[in-house]
Design a protein that fits this description.
Distance between the termini: 7 Å
CATH topology of the largest domain: Diaminopimelate Epimerase, Chain A, domain 1
CATH superfamily of the largest domain: Diaminopimelate Epimerase, Chain A, domain 1
Radius of gyration: 18 Å
Shape: globular
Strand content: 35-45%
Largest sheet: 18 strands, mixed
CATH class of the largest domain: Alpha Beta
Order of helices and strands: EEHEEEHEEEEHEEHHEEEHEEEE
Helix content: 10-25%
């Protein structure tokens, strides 16, 4: 079976920045085991699979190890592919049916804007593995049912983190969002995301984490429109607009490669 596949750098304004995702465009559903095998072969933080369904597209996301419920950068990449490859007119929003409900994505000039559910964090006690795994004092700890969330003292502390991934992998969560106040003009907050239990030690730019980061920093700063920078080695900027129980995440994408999966 020949499957079109695209390699996209999401939340990036140049090649080899942001977060890479593979996007596989299918005619219809295929077996979960095959999608997981393809994602392992792609060996990126997420591979997206989409096929037409109910006037939009069914969209699923797989890390090299597991399927996930929500992924921002691979959703942005999927919409980019639909418009770039002519599957969808750029003036028509892309509608995705997912495990996290219906997601609508629209084009706004060079930017892509995604309407996602807000996932605010609730305060909780810091699990011992989190404190030991991060190895720095934690100013605030919370959870949102999917991820653990920790604020650290400064952006410098965040950038210098050297987590113990074996300890973080013991946590009963998809991953760990770590954040601090921004340290550059126009940047409201910085973050990093660690998910060793999901097969990804550090994700370069995590759109879904901003569904939690946006509400947290919006309340802290009294703002509805924020700019976050994910301070991984590749790095990437995510624009966040707060819309009640939804958030709009904005970013750009770059096509790196396209071809066909033959196996």
């Amino acid at each position: 079976m020949s499957v079109p596949v695209y390699w996209i750098d999401a939340f990036a304004d140049r090649p080899f920045a942001g977060n890479p995702a593979a996007v596989c465009v299918l005619d219809g559903p295929i077996a979960d085991e095959r999608m997981q095998a393809i994602a392992a072969e792609m060996n990126l933080s997420e591979t997206a699979f989409l096929h037409p369904e109910a006037g939009g597209y069914r969209l699923r996301w797989f890390t090299p190890a597991v399927e996930v419920d929500l992924c921002g950068h691979a959703t942005l990449a999927s919409a980019f592919v639909l418009w770039h490859a002519g599957y969808r007119d750029r003036e028509v929003p892309a509608v995705f049916h997912t495990r996290s409900g219906e997601l609508t994505v629209r084009s706004d000039g060079d930017a892509i804007r995604m309407n996602f559910p807000a996932c605010p964090a609730r305060p909780c006690a810091a699990p011992p593995e989190l404190t030991a795994g991060l190895g720095v004092p934690l100013a605030w700890v919370g959870e949102n049912g999917s991820d653990l969330f920790a604020e650290v003292g400064s952006a410098a502390v965040l950038r210098d983190l050297l987590p113990d991934m074996a300890r973080l992998a013991l946590l009963p969560a998809r991953g760990v969002i770590v954040t601090a106040a921004g340290d550059a003009p126009g940047v409201d907050f910085v973050s990093r995301f660690f998910a060793p239990a999901s097969g990804i030690n550090e994700d370069p730019v995590t759109g879904s984490a901003h569904c939690c980061l946006g509400p947290y920093w919006g309340a802290r700063l009294g703002k509805d429109a924020l700019t976050g920078y994910q301070a991984s080695r590749r790095g990437g900027t995510v624009r966040v607009n707060l819309l009640g129980d939804r958030v709009e995440l904005g970013g750009t994408a770059v096509l790196i490669a396209e071809g066909k999966l033959l196996a």
